[in-house]
Amino acid sequence: MIDSEGRMIIYTDKAPEAIGPYSQAVRVGNMIFTAGQIGLDPATMEIVSGGIEAETRQVLTNLKEILKSANSGMSNVIKTVVFLRDMADFPKMNNIYAQFFTENPPARSTVEVAGLPKNVAVEIEAIALTGTDHGL
User: 108 Cβ partners below 8 Å, 6+ apart?
Assistant: First the structure.
């Protein structure tokens, strides 16, 4: 449902529930703004084990499911922001990230931060356009 400000709240049970007072994503017009996602398994609400690579894969899978529920997909992402607990993890994160954005990757900023929720290694947020992306 679209509110009086023209916002549509996006929700899917295929991504983790919000762990605070925020939405998984908000659609305004043809743009989707996701909340930062961490490596929570939506089935257990626990952080996946396996370090930065497993966390990055889960984060991007969560984003993919949120975008899918908003009639969008990974090929519609125009900008991401990656927050890393340790910039030394950049090459491993980047390797997994490249598997999700194989053609025409979005613009991206990557920053090291002092801490992240649940002491995870990575958090990623995205801005995307609506529309289908052929199954991605």
Answer: 79, 80, 81, 82
